[in-house]
Amino acid sequence: MTEKGQHQPIIVRSGERVVLSLHNMSMMAHPMHLHGHVFQVVGLNGRRVAGALRDTVHVSPMSMVDVALDAGEAARWMLHCHHMPHLATGMITEFAVTASA
Q: What is the model's pTM?
């Protein structure tokens, strides 16, 4: 994620299996939330895990979380930090799902 208004959307096809790697390179925790989908935590700091299904994941300071999901309905979905001050300063991007071929 980048400065407010400068995000680059994540573009996927409906039905596509996607793994997102969320890297937190700060000293603050970030609860990352994806609208319209559920995902499974499949990695913590490079170690494979079989986590629960959820739509929000806590990304600890200086850590990495990998989540896997099947892209759903074709639409533009928000992916953002659930701390409102972080959201307000631009910690948001689009998870853009396009129709499958």
A: 0.88
- Look-up: residue for tokens 């937190």? 24
E strand or H helix at 84: helix 84-88
CA distances, 75 to each of 1, 41, 68 (Å) = 19, 23, 18
What is the set of domains in the chain, with CATH numbers? 10-98 (2.60.40.420)
pLDDT digits (tens, 9 = 90+) for 48-96: 999 989 999 999 999 999 999 999 999 999 999 999 888 888 889 999 9
- Give the up-direction half-sphere exposure of residue 62: CA atoms within 13 A in the CB hemisphere: 1
Residue 3 is inside which H or E element, if any?
none
